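Protein in question kept in full:
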Amino acid sequence: MSVIVPAYNAGDRLYATLRGLAARPFWEELIVVDDGSRPPVSPEAIAAAAFRQGSRAGSSVRLVRLPVNRGKGRALMTGILESRGAWIVLLDADLGESAALAEALVRPLLAREAEHVVAVLPPALGDGFGWLRRFSARAVWRRTGVWLKAPLSGQRAIAGAPLRRWAPALDVGYGAETMLNLLSLRDGIVPLEVPLPFDHRRLGRTPAAMWHRARQARDVLRALWAYDRRVRRSGGWGDG
C-alpha cells in the first residue's frame, strides 16, 4: 500500500498530516512530493513526523523533489510513477492529523468492493467552492453519464495498475482529479464515494483565495480540453 502526498508550501500542516498517517500505519510506502516549496520540505522533519508515533517496521518514507513548482498534477504523476504499491492512496498535504482517517478509504479496496474510492468531505459553509464542484460534476456527467458528489476531492484510494496507466494524463494542475474521474469512468471503474470527516485548510474569501480558485477553474478546463482532445478523439493515455 503506497500513500502519495503532493506538497507545495504546506508548512507545519504537512508534518501534522504525516503524524496522522503514522497514527494509522496501514501503509508500507509513503512518498511526499515536494512541488518546489520555498523553503524546501525538510527530509529530517518528514522522517521524524512519519515515525513519531511508531509506524510499522519496514515502512518506507521517501521525499521526492521537483526543482520548481510544476503544479499538483505533475506532483501526483511523479509520485504515482515512483510508487510500488498494488494500491495507492492520494492525499492532500493540509489534512493535519485527520489524515488518519485515510485508513477507511482502503477498506473497500481490500474487500474487493471497489477499485477507486473517493472521500466526500463535510460541506464547508461559505467556502466559495461549490460552483466549481458543480461545474466539474456536470462536465463529468455530460461525458460519462455518472454524477459524482465530490469530483474535486483529493482524498482517494485507487488500484495501482490502472492509476499508473492514467498517470501521464494527470499533468493538468488542479484539474488532476477531474481527469481521474473521466479516465476511471472511461475504463468502466465507477468511483465509490464514501463520507469521511477529513479536515483541511479553509481558504475563505480573501483575494488570495479567490485567485487560487480561479487557477483551479482554469486547470479543470485544461483537464476537460485535454480529455476531449486526446482521449475521446484518439484513445490516448492508457486506453483500457
About this structure: The chain has a mean pLDDT of 90. The beta strands are 2-7, 29-35, 60-66, 87-90, 116-120, 156-159, 192-195. The first strand starts at residue 2 and ends at 7. The chain has one domain: 2-232.
